[in-house]
Amino acid sequence: MGVKRRKNDDSDVEESETASSKRKRTVATEKKDQLRPSMIKNKEKRSEVHTRLKHQKKLDKRAKAKARDAAVKKALELGEELPEKKVPRTIENTREFDETVCKPDDEELFAGNDADEFSSILHQQQTPKILITTCRFHSSRGPAFISELLSVIPNAHYYKRGTYDLKKIVEYAKNKDFTSVIVVHTNRREPDALLIIGVPNGPTAHFKLSKLVLRKDIKNHGTPTSHKPELVLNNFTTRLGSRIGRLIQSLFPQDPEFKGRRVVTFHNQRDFVFFRHHRYIFEKKEVKRAESKGKKDKGDKSDNVPEQKVIARLQVGLGSFLFSFYLPPPFKSSIDVDHCITYGYVPHYFPCLSNKWYSMWSVVQSILDNRNWPFRLLTSVILIRGYRGEIV
Amino acid sequence: MPRTTTLECSGCPPLRALTFDSIGLIKVLEVPDKQRGVPQVVERWGDPESSKCVMAVSMIDRNSQPLLAVARKNNEIEVLSPVNGDIQTTISDASGLDVSSEENNIVGLHLFEKQNTELDSRYCTLLTCTTKGNASIRSIELADSSTESSCTDSPKTWNVCSGGNILCCKVDRHENFALFGGKGVELNIWDINNLTKIWNSKPPPKDNLGIFTPTWFTSAAFLMKDDHRKFVAGTNSHQVRLYDISAQRRPVLSFDFRETPIKALAEDIDGHSVYVGNGSGDMASFDIRTGKMLGGFSGKCSGSIKSIVRHPELPIIASCGLDCYLRLWDTKTRQLLSAVFLKQHVMHVLFDSKFDIKGVDSSLPSKGKTQTEILSEEVEELPLKRKKSSRNKEHTEDGSERKKKSKHSKERKKSEGRDGGEKIGSRDERRKSKLKKKDSRSIPEL
User: Fold this and answer.
1) Residue A391 above 60 pLDDT?
2) CB contact under 8 A, B3 and A96
3) Which of residues 402-441 of B touch A (CB under 8 A)?
4) Which residues between 340 and 369 in chain B have a beta carbon less than 8 angstroms from any beta carbon of chain A?
5) Is the CB of residue B103 less than 8 Å away from at least one CB of chain A?
6) Which domain holds residue A24?
7) Claim to verify: residue A246 and residue A352 sit in the same structural domain
8) How many other C-beta atoms are found inside a 10 Å radius of the C-beta of residue A222?
9) What confidence category does residue A178 fall into, taking pLDDT thresholds of 50, 70 and 90?
10) Which of B19, B23, B304, B327 is best to mutate for the A interface (most A CBs within 10 A)?
11) What's the pTM value of the predicted model, to 2 decimals?
């Protein structure tokens, strides 16, 4: 090993001498590339080659970064245009342009919305009344989930399923002036699907349910009050999305009690809908203001309000993805998320479940930065078009 | 996961299509220029209103004075010009029928082409049929002002069924027979001229488990243009059935298509292939002689298909439905030619086959110019195609095209090799007809 290391050292010395030698080295590595370490049968030799390659890669990377920084610096000094910043390819920015995304100034969209089944509820001509029932057999987590649903959705009534046909149930709901029927399907003692039926002639939507976390499973959870919640619908941007959003919206009363500080969030991301239920609390906690912040806030009305620390005590069993958060205007200072109930639809391929703090924080920060409250009340439901920064 | 690759569409030849929304809008789509392109919404007629949801449409597709009838959810029938969307008459159906509740919507509508020519051109004859089975034939005077409308004679009304709901209503090519069917209503055929039921279908026997599937026809189509005896029907129990009046009352042939109700059926002009669309957005074409599937139309169709229409000349079909898209497909390759997002649930689509490539609106003053242009183009193109097209010249000279076309389709059946030549021939003919039409259409505009 010793001999080998010495060899390594020698080569390193050579490499670091001049740029020309560097070029030589890259040529050499190209040659070496053809001889992959995996082709070597001797383990010691193989690992040696491997480490050398790895080391070289690291050096290359560092040199690249250095060169880039130098270029930027030079450009700054000379007052030239900065070299182009490379944007990483992500799923989001390689997404195909979706022509069905609704534009906020689309008259036809509003006309279509006014004509649909939910418009009477959303215009507050009708108060939503929900019938919740189950599939034929249900036990354990099913009833628990339903009791949670009853606490989340105001004016929801649970009816035992019995042996009734779903058609009979819908007929019954129609006669009793219900506006929607929710059926919770349970499989293996675990709720796995939601069926939301608009009554009398509304659409029916079937949602798969996964990664359900009940309130009692969350550490330090609070207890919800019986106030009417505010509703946050994120990212229901496409034509179909807006329809789904309106379907969900029609489950909740359109006059939230801001006093209760309850928020129910439906966040759509890549066709998965995440559900969260929070109460926010405003705690005043003096914090030394950062200078940059102070400058930013100078023009604002809330200048005399001292900057306050945001404590996001999110005790979520699962990740909370990119929350967009709404603060009612009278308070507009800080958020403390007291508790939340999570019924999430978390797909398995999201690896970064532990990032819950980060995403929450970034959103809270961005809200605090935008002190001018660009949210518009749409019949008390705030549509915040999530992470693209457009707010409608 | 979001889609990260775009679906390539090859675009379509010049055509004009009309789509009808669930909020009562009529949109006109055109592919303007000669090279293949994507259809674009060029005009929008009507105001958005949910009570104006289009239930049924019918069009007389001819050169002179084409007409379009639209039945709305509020039981109004509008007769308009498919060229510029001027409403010629509006009839509210409450006068003609005893019941006009919410559930008694018009489901079938047919504008008669034949009788119109016999009468004064200012009259048109309509067949309507409601869900409850009240059918009526009436002729209407086309007034210039949209407010006034008058039925000339008391409409001939009759009841098609005693119970159940009518869901499909078709009139055969020669406009002598009408076909009705629906939920709980077996298919029945009526002679329109003397209002007698001439044939009634019989449900298929119970299956080997002794289970009887309830009657529920959702769509129907006459198979051939000159034969009213053969027709295809789609059922809610996802079956496609072929009936032959001359053979038996039970279906001659029936086969399943996927798992959701058949929602739309369309026949090809060749007389033996049908296009089937169902409630979950699947589309396929079948050879009805054997019941074999020729192939599926694969694309990103995602909503229930409401209507499928075959272009009378070009090898193109259009499908539309609840996914708010109008899609145009090639019938031969079954590839998607283009898809247009129309924002609303599209209930119906129609082709305006007499569409002028240069655009009807491209003004009268420059008419002479366009004519010469067309002529010159003809001259340019002819040397390439003369060989093939000359064979069919004799057929295509005359004006009445439709009957010729059925001949064409027969010929097409016989020989595949001559196919291309015929198409070109018919295209030439169309160009001539366009010249004719230009003159004829210009008159009402003036």
Assistant:
1) no
2) yes
3) none
4) 341, 343-344
5) no
6) 2-78
7) yes
8) 17
9) very high
10) B23
11) 0.68
Name residue, tokens 């990483």: A88
Give the pLDDT band (50/70/90) at residue A292.
very low
Whether A96 maps to a domain, the answer reads no
Range with the largest mean pLDDT of A29-38, A322-331, B294-303, B402-411:
B294-303
Co-location of A261 and A192 in the same domain: no
When divided into structural domains, chain A yields a total of 3
- Write the residue in A100, A114, A270 that is nearest to B1 by C-beta: A270
Q: Is the pLDDT of residue A254 over 80?
A: yes
Q: Same domain, yes or no, for A243 and A343?
A: yes
Question: Does domain B16-351 correspond to CATH entry 2.130.10.10?
Answer: yes
* Closest chain A residue by Cα to residue B50: A115
Q: Is residue A132 part of a domain?
A: yes
A-chain residue closest to B48, CA distance:
A111
Q: Do A270 and B2 touch (CB under 8 A)?
A: yes
Flag residues of chain B having pLDDT under 70: 1-7, 34, 93-102, 115-121, 143-154, 300, 356-446
Q: SS3 for chain B, per residue?
A: CCCCCCCCCCCECCCEEEEEECCCCEEEEECCCCCCECCEEEEEECCCCHHHCEEEEEEECCCCCCEEEEEECCCEEEEECCCCCCEEEEEECCCCCCCCCCCCCEEEEEECCHHHHHCCCCEEEEEEEECCCEEEEEEEECCCCCCCCEECCCCEEEECCCCCEEEEEEECCCCCEEEEEEECEEEEEEECCCCEEEEECCCCCCCCCCCCCCCEEEEEEEEECCEEEEEEEEECCCEEEEEECCCCCCCCEEEECCCCCEEEEEECCCCCEEEEEECCCCEEEEECCCCEEEEECCCCCCCCEEEEEECCCCCEEEEEECCCEEEEEECCCCCEEEEEECCCCEEEEEECCCCCCCCCCCCCCCHHHHHHHHHHHHHHHHHHHHHHHHCCHHHHCCCCHHHHHHHHHHHHHHCCCCHHHHHHHHHHHHHHHHHHHHHHHHHHHC
Q: Is B87 on the interface with A (CB under 8 A)?
A: no
pLDDT at residue A25 in the model:
54
Name the band, by pLDDT with cuts 50, 70 and 90, for residue A339: very low
pLDDT of residue A256: 85
Q: Does B50 touch chain A (CB under 8 A)?
A: yes
Residues of A in contact with B25 (CB under 8 A): 108
CB atoms A115 and B5 under 8 Å:
no
Q: Which of A182, A209, A236 is the endpoint of a domain?
A: A209
Q: Are residues A235 and A345 in the same domain?
A: yes
Tell me the shortest Cα–Cα distance from B50 to chain A, in angstroms: 5
Residues A156 and A260 in one domain: no
Residues A199 and A229 in one domain: no
pLDDT for residue A326: 27
Instruction: State pLDDT tens for residues B367-390.
Output: 333 343 444 444 344 343 444 444
Same domain? For A59 and A205 the reply is no
**B1-27 residue pLDDT tens:** 556 666 677 888 888 899 998 888 999
Q: Is the pLDDT of residue A45 over 90?
A: yes
pLDDT (0 to 100) of residue A328: 26
Residue A368's pLDDT band, with cuts at 50, 70 and 90, is very low
Q: Do B324 and A108 lie within an 8 Å CB cutoff?
A: no
Residue A294, pLDDT > 80, answer no
Candidate ranges A52-56, A263-267, B311-315; pick with highest mean pLDDT: A52-56
User: Where does CATH 2.130.10.10 sit in chain B?
Assistant: 16-351
Q: Does A371 fall in a domain?
A: yes
